[in-house]
Amino acid sequence: NISAIKEASGDLDAITKIIAETPEDFYVYSGDDGLTLPILAVGGRGVVSVASHIVGSDMQQMIKNYTNGQTATAALIHQKLLPIMKELFKAPNPAPVKTALQLKGLDVGSVRLPLIPLNEDERLSLSSVISEL
User: Fold this and answer.
1) Which of 10, 59, 83, 111 is most buried, judged by most C-beta within 10 A?
2) Among 122, 59, 111, 60, which Cα is nearest to 85's?
3) What is the pLDDT of residue 46?
4) Which residues neighbour 98 within 8 Å (Cβ) at sequence distance 6 or greater?
5) In the prediction, which pLDDT does 133 show?
6) Per the omega criterion (within 30 degrees of 0), is the bond before 23 cis?
């Protein structure tokens, strides 16, 4: 039996339809960090997150605030995190998140072929967004 799905299509209408047409005990998790809050708002249950490797406490707080009815605070956290969420997907995963972890002082090694590391412009852009957190 299938009891949950990670939904990363980016199509909020389709995600809403899945939630509306499945039993209440069927969980839909966001697979797109930037849509976590909107998916929670239409009945999603959480996130399978890349950004949480960098801003895990903030992501957790955003979800807790939303589930506790503090939607305005959750929205502010979402707005603050959106730049890093977007930056982490400007190149094929996991290159950006590995670079971000390295920039934060955690040696996680490099990506393996056929993937390639971020170029200098991508690395500088990511570094800039991380420094603003």
Assistant:
1) 59
2) 59
3) 96
4) 108, 109, 110, 111
5) 87
6) no
